[in-house]
Amino acid sequence: MADGFKGTLWKAWDSDVAYSFRTSPITIASAILTLIIVGAAFLAPWIAPHNPFDVGSLNIMDSRLPPAWEDQGVPEFWLGTDVQGRDVFSTILYGSRISLIVGVLSVIFAAVLGVGLGLLAGYMGGIVDAVIMRIAEVQLSFPAFLIALLIDGVARALLPPEDQESAAIPVLVLSIGLSFWVQYARTVRGSTLVERRKEYVQAAQIIGLHPLLIMLRHVLPNVVGPVLVIATINLALAVITEATLSFLGRGVPPTQPSLGTLIRIGQEYLFSGDWWVTLFPGLTLAVMVLAVNLLGDWLRDALNPKLR
Predict the structure, then answer these.
(1) Mapping DSSP to helix (H, G, I), strand (E, B) and coil, where does residue 81 land?
(2) 217 Cβ neighbours under 8 A, 6+ residues apart
(3) Which helix (H) or strand (E) holds 115?
(4) At what angle do helices 168-195 and 88-124 cross, to 10 degrees?
(5) Which structural domains are found in the chain, ordered by start?
(6) From 131's CA, which of 24, 83, 217, 268 has a CA 20 to 30 Å away?
(7) From CA 19, how far away is CA 171, in angstroms rounded?
(8) Residues 52, 55, 56, CA angle at the centre, nearest 5°?
(9) Planar angle of CA 176, 108, 295, nearest 5 degrees
(10) CA-CA distance, 180 to 107, in Å (whole number)?
(11) What is the pLDDT of residue 111?
């Protein structure tokens, strides 16, 4: 058992993808940055010096304090505080967690929906393929952000006012996921059109397997490679979309701020000299998106057999 496990690890380490990773310093740096940001975000309750969502611990006398290295800075708040007296460093940790949760859930929802519709369109063909692809083409004629903004507005309009704050994250996941499914569907459909003509699919049809079983057991494993690349790149896009919606006031409420909400709150006081409230969340968002994008670019090249 141990020898088999070691052999599997050695094969993985000696693979083309692993070699591509080991020989790319930019990719290694991006992976380290991503791990640091993700780890810090999800360990926020344990590593954050303050709980920015605990109203009882906030002191209005601590509001708008500059970073610790400034003249009026306090070492307790080394990145300063916002207008409510919340520690900026702690709010960044908690805000990053909200942004990542929304981004990951949105990508999972979009991938499941897009892969399912792509498999169905590519395997069934005919009227099913035509309907799904025409819907995808219509959606592609609009920017993804406008689709997300429209779905977000409609969903909020249908909810009672007292439930809108508690349903903010599910609404964001729904709106962002529905705006990103098309790319998965088109990619999986193209791969499925190729796979369904191969002998192993025809053999499965001959022995009488159900079409759903053929799609899930035989076709899906052979078309999932490009989906991983799309999901990695779309994660960065989903985080940016969530931040943009929150910046416009259509995202999570100020009581549970994401990075976009923090930037929106800070920009209201930017011209009064409180630059740190906006700058540090903005830098965190930029570094997070850049690191994930670089990982997505590497994964796309590493899984492309033409570039090996």
Answers:
(1) strand
(2) 209
(3) helix 88-124
(4) 40
(5) 2-53+63-307 (1.10.3720.10)
(6) 217
(7) 41
(8) 120
(9) 95
(10) 8
(11) 92
Local structure of 229: helix, strand or coil? helix
Residue with tokens 């249908």: 158
3-state class of 259 per DSSP? helix
* pLDDT digit string, tens, across residues 18-49: 767 777 888 888 889 989 988 998 898 888 88
Query: 273 to each of 77, 213, 268, how far by Cα in Å?
Result: 17, 62, 10
Question: Burial level of 207, CB count in 10 A (0-12/13-18/19+)?
Answer: exposed
For the beta carbon of residue 135, count every other beta carbon within 10 angstroms: 15
Paired residues of 87 in beta bridges? 81
Q: What pTM, to 2 d.p., does this model score?
A: 0.85
Task: Give yes or no for a contact between 261 and 251, defined as CB atoms under 8 angstroms apart.
Answer: yes
Closest C-alpha among 274, 154, 303 to residue 265: 274
